[in-house]
Amino acid sequence: MARPTQRQIAEQLGLSPATVSLALRDSPMIAEATRALVRAAVAKAGYVPNVAASGLRTGRTRIIGVSFHNIAHQFFAEMLIAIEETLADQGVAVFINNHGENPASLERFVVSLAAHGAEGLIVSPPPHVAPEIFAPLRSGGAPVVYVSRRLLEDDAADWVINADAVAIRRAVDRLIETGRRRLMLLCGALGTTVAQDRGDGFRMALEAHGLPWSPDLWIQRRPIMAQGADAAREAMARKPAPDGLVCFNDLVALGAMNALRALGLEPGRDVGVVGVGGTDEAAAFHPGLTTVLDNPARIGRLAAEMLRDRIEHPGAPPRHVVLDPRLVIRESCGGARAKDA
Length: 341
What we know:
The chain has 341 residues and is of the alpha/beta class. It has 13 helices and 12 strands. The strands form 2 sheets. The protein has a 6-stranded parallel sheet with strand order 2-1-3-4-5-11, sandwiched between helices. Helix 5 runs parallel beside helix 13 (296-312). The protein is elongated.
C-alpha cells in the first residue's frame, strides 16, 4: 500500500497543499487550530515526509555524519546521544562511522557522506590524517567540526575539546597531595592532539613539583583495559617501582588496578591510581576510582550547535572551545576522600 502524500492529505481536509506543508513545519502563518487538524490527519493516515523530495526542493538533505574511533566507549556514546538530542527537533538524520583509528575507514565515510549530500561532519579524527581527507565534503560546502581531537593544521575549522593537559596535571597534583613521588603515565600514544596534550601535561606537572621527567616515565600503549593491565605490570617491574599511576583513561586505570591486585598490591593503599573519563565503572569499582571528568555530553551539545550554526552562517569566524575538566576524588588515589575538586 502506497504511503499517503501531502497532496492527498490536503484534498482530504479541503486545504491547499501549501497550507498543509506550512502546518507540518509548524509555521505561525497557519492558525493553531488548522495546524492541530493537519497533525491529527497525518498521524491517522500514517504520513511520513519524503525527505529526498524535500531535499530536491530546498537543497537541504538534513543529513550529518558523526565519526569516532570507538562508539562503544561510554565517552563517545554519551557524546553521540547529546548530538542526536540537540539536533532531533530539526529532523536531522545522523550517519555514524566507527573508524577504529583507520584513516581509510574515515575516508570511505567522507566520500559516502558527500555522495548522500550530507550537510556536515562531526569527527574525532584518527592519527596521521590531513585536512585534505575532508575535501569531498568541503568542496560541496559542508563544514567539519572537531571533537575531543583536532588537526592542528586545520585551525580555521570549529572545534570543542577538553583541556587535556590540565586534566593530567590535576591527576598528578592529587597524587602528590597524597604523598606519592614516583609517578608514571600509562597508555596513550603520540599521534593525536589528546595524547600530545596529556603527555605534555604529565611532563609539566612533574617539573612544576620539582620531580624529574624522562620519556620512559610514559608507557605508550593503546588506551584499553587489557593494555592498562600490561602497562601496570611493566611499570611495577621497574626498580624502583612507581607509587602512583596516572592513567590515560578510566579503562586503563581499571585494568591497572586489576593488575596491581594480581601482584598483591592494593590500589589506594600501596599504589595511587587516577584515571580520566568519569565512567560509570569508575564509581562502581572497588576501590572507587579517582578520575578527571571529560565532559562528553557537553562536548556533544556544543559540537551539534557549532555545526548547526556553521551550516546557517558559513562565513562566521571559527569557534574554538576548551572545556575545563573536574577532578572527582575517590579511594584509589589514597589519602582522605574529599568532595569534587
